[in-house]
Each structure stands twice: as C-alpha cells, then as structure tokens.
C-alpha cells in the first residue's frame, strides 16, 4: 500500500510547494481536488484538457518528486434538485474522468449525491427512517428515477475512459453504507466502488473492519481515506449519532472528526490495514484532515507518523511470517 494525502489540506500553497512538503514526509501518493467541495486550487481539469503543455507540466510536477496520483476528487451533488447546481457538479465529474484517463489515474472520487423528494423539489431529501411510509416512497422514487439511471450512465462513461468511480460513503447522500454502495454497484456496474472512509462508518455505528470485509469480498473498494472519529459517550446520549450541530461546536457534539490515532488507537488502525490487505486492497491510504483540535501541520504529521508505524509493523510481520 502507498501512504498518501488528500491535497485539499494544502490548497493555500502552490502545487509545487505542497508536493515538496508531502514528499519530504516520505509519502508516495497524492489525491488531488478537481472540483466540487474540494475545489480546484491545484488542478483545473478544463484548463489542462485544453492545453497539452500544461498537462505535461502538471504531470511532471507530481512524478518528478517520486509521487503518484491515487485519485482525482470532485465531491459534489450531481443529483441536486436545483439543476444548475447539479450541472456544475456533473461537469466537474465528467472533466475529472477525462483528465484521469489522460493522466493514467485509476480513480475519480466523488459523492453519490442526493436528490429531492419529487421532480420540482428545491433541496435534497435524505430519508433515514422506514416509517412514516412517506419516507419509503421518497426513497424508492429517488433510486428508481434519479440514483440508478444517473450512475448507470456515468459508470459506463467512466469504464469507457478506463476509470473507476470511488463513491465516498457519507451521511446525507444516497450511498452512505456498504449496503447502499453494493445496491448501486449491482445496478450500475463494477466501475462503481467505494472511496471508503472509516470516519464516516464510525459515526453511523458501522465497524470499519466489517465494512472492509463486506465491500472487499465484492471487489468494491476502489480507494481508501484515512481519517478518525471520536464519539463522546455523554453527548451521544443527548443528541444521537445523527447530531445536527455545527462541526465547530466541538464541546457539545456527539461525535467529531479527529486525526488518525486520536479517535481510535493504533491497534484499531492496524486491524483496519490488516483487513484491507486480507481482502486484497493494495492501493492508496489517503490521509484526510478535518480535526478541529489540531492545526493542519500537526494533524497531518500525527496521522503520517501513526500510519507509518502501522505500515512498518505490518511489513515486519510479513517478513517474520516468511
């Protein structure tokens, strides 16, 4: 496996400076934002697709530092009921797939999106309960009329361009659990897979190791994020796991994102890495930082140190076994 980082962390730095910093930490992979919520600070696909010289310069900047691009990421909502918002995210996705093919990047990461509750809705609607029955009707309408048709078309488009789609399992979107990912994969094809982030499993009450086994046995893990979550044992009883408080209200929230090793211990992360290897995943482990208690540099460095320790111990374990 290659240890990497989601470069949105360093969006305030020039690409070359950010790559130098990442390489200095001993990392081997970068995940680069190409639109949607991650933005385009380091890479504007439309510009690179139109300019071969800039494309070569961009590729050289990464490869000359001994790095590889694990994924292009354009997390957005291409199913948003407001057409202009959906179209913008859709165009970012299409351009990201086209650019990934030119760069030889295997994966484009994004969200599945979430539709509204009818054709003329204004806002997304994320049903999370089977009753009252209205929610079941909304969910069926969304999947049959929006989710499956859209992603069936996009999966074919990605496959035609030799690219896999890594959908991040994230609350608020139609695909947010192993079951919903596998449902869409069965309907739309094997280009669909997970960009699996343990942090989003923990706050939904899902064991990431089990999620890895469920998805890995189906060959459905295309990319992997490394981010932690801590659940407050007192606040969770007040607000529940679907806590709607702002992420900035850290003292009172039921759960919050942390850097690797600060929500769960290194043994837990070792179990996660072992599970990935057991199901045959041998690609990037991409660090994502959303820890409100640490600066970017501190959180990133701690995550790198903890994951390097895990990967080294895993390698030594293999040597001993041999």
From TrEMBL:
Boundaries of every Xylose isomerase-like TIM barrel domain copy: 19-300
GO MF, one term, reads: isomerase activity
Q: Which UniProt keywords apply?
A: Isomerase
Q: Which InterPro entries match?
A: IolE/XylAMocC-like (IPR050312), Xyl_isomerase-like_sf (IPR036237), Xyl_isomerase-like_TIM-brl (IPR013022)
For this entry, the protein name equals: Sugar phosphate isomerase/epimerase
